[in-house]
Structure formats: structure tokens, C-alpha cells
Amino acid sequence: MFIPKYRRKTLYGKVKQDIREILRTLCSYKKVEIIQGAVCKDHVHMYVSIPPKLSVSDFMGYLKGKSALMVFDRHPEMGSKFNRHFWAKGYYVATVGNVTEDTVREYIEKQQEEDRLEDRALR
């Protein structure tokens, strides 16, 4: 899981679609399989299979760094000329081992449902 800077609720509409596409593209470049994922208004969940030759920290640095640049290319209004930070520092990673694959999938689905319910409440 990782979040936009200051946990801004900016991941919706065209930006949300673009982030999905960007993350898929960057994962395919590194041969990372996206098993399941969710782009919510203020955070991203990804359940991925990373090749053994690639460290988790290297992959996350690549994913967050390149995706931020690609988001700013597509949506220059998201940052100023001097403030080019899109994602907050850090991320949360857990390996599947202590929990089952079904537990991870259920958690991501629950996050998506909560995001949808919040959207409906705001309308």
C-alpha cells in the first residue's frame, strides 16, 4: 500500500484511470505480475508477484518514482514547477506467508467497497 503526498484524495476520475494504466505498464516492464489491485481515492493497494532477482525496495522505488513522473506528464496541474512530489515517503509491504492469499484478496476487495460507499455518500 502507498499513498499520495499528504494523503490527498486526488485519485479519482481520469487520474485514477491513468494511474491504473501507468502501474500496469511499469509492472509489465519489470515482469511483475499484478494479481489484484485497487486504486482508491487516497491510497493504492497492490497484490503482486515480484521476480526473485528484483528486491521489493528497488521495485517500489522504481514504481513510485516513474509513476509520479508519468502522472505529472499527463496531469501537470497536479504539481507545481518546484514541487514535483506525488507519492508520500514510504509504503507498506507484507509477504504472503503468515496470511492466506484469500485473506489478501478479501482485504483489497473490502477497501474497494469502502471507497465505493464513500463515493455514494458524498453524492
Number of domains: 1
The residue fraction in helices comes out at 40-55%
Please give the largest β-sheet.
Answer: 2 strands, antiparallel
The computed structural class is mainly alpha
Tally of DSSP β-strands: 2
Please tell me what the overall shape is.
globular
**Average pLDDT reading:** 87
Q: Would you identify the CATH H-level superfamily?
A: Transposase IS200-like
Strand proportion, as a percent range, falls in 5-15%
DSSP helical segment count: 3
Q: Please tell me the CATH architecture by its name.
A: 2-Layer Sandwich
Find the CATH topology.
Alpha-Beta Plaits
Fold and architecture overview:
Helices cover 47% and strands 11% of the residues. It is mainly alpha-helical and 123 residues long. It has a two-stranded antiparallel sheet with strand order 1-2. Helix 1 crosses helix 2 (56-74).
Provide keyphrases for this structure.
123 residues; mainly alpha; Alpha-Beta Plaits; two-stranded antiparallel sheet; 2 strands; globular
Topology (elements, then pairings):
Layout: H1 13-29, E1 33-39, E2 44-49, H2 56-74, H3 101-122
Antiparallel strand pairs: 1-2
Helix pairs in contact: 1-2
